[in-house]
Write a structure and sequence with these properties.
three-stranded antiparallel β-sheet; mainly alpha; 3 domains
């Protein structure tokens, strides 16, 4: 019965009970240690049982030595930092281009800037809050001695990043001097260089101050306060840039309406091409659009579902009518394929003619 109870009980409780019994019998801890070691117990379990019985406070845990958990946290942290910084810089560059417009640039560059800004906002919304969370989480774990400050992974990533930032600043400065000597130092270039310097320079100072906290013999209160202030500044910079982007680029609603208008133009071009082929095959314009035997979805408005209006004006002349959400200027469409398809907002009629070479 006793053997069964002992077998079913918790081994840790048995160990604790044995150590308590041995100490009551005035057995010294060295003898207890050797006795339990010879029975197959591990040093860590023996030490925990003796300290729990003889001491009034638990044994403090040693500082973490890092390892896989350190690599996970700091690789994630630096990845988020790199992605956020690059996205912020690109967004600032494109916003400067859209604010200080160069009349010699093509329209497609403006459309590309709008798309790049939307992409940068999407990246920042995900990666920058995650970066701030990781900064807080790592600081909390370091304070709780669950993560080492200034471990191997953190040191390598920090100094590698400091090197990259330093080279970026030097290249930025060299380019600035070169553009000045070439006489091409425009306001746009100066603002871009300044934006780059603010972002990467701030990152350099933030990381450099962090190295002072690796050595506990040097004061860290002042550097910690400065780093927290810089984090607040980075949040303000990102927020201000996103707001600037929000008032510069088209809203999602406007983009949706532009997409509908573009789809309407595609439909009308599709219909006009079919009318030209019909005239080539039959020598006359079709009596109605149903005669063309086209896809029904291409004959109706993508939003309202109303059919596009078609009317014959002459032997080779006809008109197509559709209702548009927004006014579209010529530059917003490709010049070579849509030069005759600019339109105002609302109902608009296109007067078209079958080309003579299609007769």
């Amino acid at each position: 019965m006793n053997a069964t109870e002992n077998h079913a009980s918790n081994p840790a409780d048995e160990l604790q009970a044995f150590v308590t019994h041995a100490l009551d019998k005035k057995l010294d801890t060295v003898a207890i240690w050797h006795t339990l070691r010879s029975a197959g117990w591990k040093d860590r379990d023996i030490g925990a049982a003796i300290s729990a019985t003889s001491l009034d406070m638990p044994v403090p845990l040693p500082r973490s030595k890092g390892g896989a958990i350190e690599a996970f946290y700091h690789l994630s942290l630096f990845t988020c930092m790199y992605v956020s910084a690059v996205s912020l810089i690109l967004m600032l560059f494109h916003l400067i281009d859209l604010t200080l417009v160069d009349p010699t640039e093509d329209t497609w560059k403006e459309r590309f800037s709008h798309g790049s800004i939307r992409s940068s906002i999407s990246v920042l919304v995900v990666f920058f809050p995650l970066y701030l969370f990781l900064v807080w989480q790592i600081g909390r774990k370091v304070s709780a001695l669950q993560l080492v400050s200034g471990g191997v992974v953190e040191r390598w990533l920090t100094y590698l990043t400091l090197f990259i930032i330093a080279m970026t600043i030097l290249i930025d400065g060299s380019t600035l001097i070169y553009m000045f000597l070439e006489g091409g130092l425009s306001a746009r270039f100066l603002l871009k260089a300044l934006s780059l310097l603010i972002v990467v320079g701030g990152g350099f100072v933030f990381l450099w101050l962090g190295t002072f906290q690796w050595n506990t013999t040097r004061p860290t209160v002042q550097t910690g306060w400065i780093r927290r202030l810089m984090l607040v500044g980075s949040i303000a910079l990102v927020a201000a840039t996103v707001v600037w982007a929000g008032v510069t680029i088209d809203s999602p609603q406007t983009l949706w309406r532009k997409g509908l208008d573009s789809e309407r133009i595609d439909d009308l071009q599709y219909i006009a091409t079919a009318i030209g082929r019909h005239y080539e095959d039959h020598g006359q314009l079709p009596a109605d659009l149903e005669t063309l035997d086209l896809d029904e979805d291409r004959l109706i408005d993508p939003e309202s579902g109303a059919p596009y209006a078609y009317q014959i004006l002459g032997e080779r002349e006809y008109q197509l009518q559709a209702e548009f959400s927004l006014a579209q200027e010529l530059d917003d469409y490709d010049y070579y394929t849509r030069s005759s398809w600019e339109h105002p907002a609302g109902v608009h009629t296109f007067v078209l003619e079958v080309k003579a070479d299609e007769e």
